[in-house]
Write a structure and sequence with these properties.
It is built from 3 helices and 3 strands. It has about 100 residues and is an alpha+beta fold. It has a single domain, classed as RRM (RNA recognition motif) domain (Alpha-Beta Plaits), CATH 3.30.70.330. A 3-stranded antiparallel sheet has the order 1-3-2. Strand 2 and strand 3 form a beta hairpin. About 15% of the residues are buried.
Length: about 100
Amino acid sequence: MCDSPSRDRRKAGRAKKGRLIVRNLSFKATEEELKRHFEGAKGGKTKGGGPTVTDVHILKRPDGRRVGCAFVQVRTRIKIDAHLLCVFLKLVPEM
């Protein structure tokens, strides 16, 4: 039995729920560095403790120059939400 086009769109939409947009990225940053950064968080089951990163895509102009933005795809949104909360709590001083 074939999947309907609407079913395919729903599957694609669910897959993108764990996608982060990273802005103000250094032009020198690499995909491997971004992957290590996000997987190195506490709270997950990977070696570093963070969410499992399934894909990293650094945006580039047609001439190959980087634009300072990237997409990071993680396996589960819950783990990335926990990671971002940990980062936020470290950055915000206690009141």
